[in-house]
């Protein structure tokens, strides 16, 4: 991985240096294509090899839920947990709705008139303290 990063950094540095030296358009395209092809080959092959090795290693492992009763038990426990948390969040949401309804009639704080010289003076005074 580090060799790939070094190669990509070196290639990008070479393309930038070549572009500043006045390389032709065809030379730039050739450099970009070669760097792209090398990066694609190394990353694709390495990633695929890692996935194949992982699949081979886990091929003989037994499954977590082997029979039907274990699957049903897992589903029921998950559903039960979600139901409990859902009810709690529903109660919290109902409380938030009630709070919002109770605050609906209260007036908002008045915004200061920023064009007023007295307000500007107060703001300057507050900023310097």
Main attributes of the structure:
4 helices, mainly alpha, 129 residues
Give a description of the structure.
The chain is mainly α. It has a domain at 1-41. Helices cover 77% and strands 0% of the residues. The chain is built from four helices and no strands. The protein has helices at residues 2-20, 25-57, 68-102, 117-128. α1 (2-20) packs antiparallel against α2. The longest helix is centred in the middle third of the chain and has 35 residues, at 68-102. It is flat and about 65 Å long. The two termini are 55 Å apart. The mean pLDDT is 77.
Shape: flat
- Note the beta-strand portion: under 5%
Helix and strand content put the structural class at mainly alpha
Largest sheet: none
Quick check: average pLDDT?
A: 77
Alpha carbon gap, first and last residue: 55 Å
Low-confidence stretches: none
Secondary structure: helix percent:
over 70%
Task: Quickly describe the structure.
This protein has helices at 2-20, 25-57, 68-102, 117-128.
Topology:
Blueprint: H1 2-20, H2 25-57, H3 68-102, H4 117-128
């Amino acid at each position: 991985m580090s060799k790939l990063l070094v190669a990509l950094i070196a290639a990008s540095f070479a393309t930038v240096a070549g572009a500043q030296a006045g390389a032709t358009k065809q030379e730039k395209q050739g450099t970009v294509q070669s760097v792209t092809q090398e990066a694609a080959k190394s990353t694709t092959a390495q990633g695929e090899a890692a996935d194949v090795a992982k699949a081979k290693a886990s091929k003989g492992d037994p499954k977590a839920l082997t029979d039907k009763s274990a699957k049903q038990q897992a589903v029921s426990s998950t559903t039960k947990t979600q139901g409990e948390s859902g009810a709690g969040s529903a109660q919290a949401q109902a409380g938030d709705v009630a709070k919002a309804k109770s605050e609906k009639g209260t007036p908002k704080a008045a915004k200061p008139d920023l064009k007023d010289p007295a307000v500007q003076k107060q703001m300057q005074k507050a900023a310097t303290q």
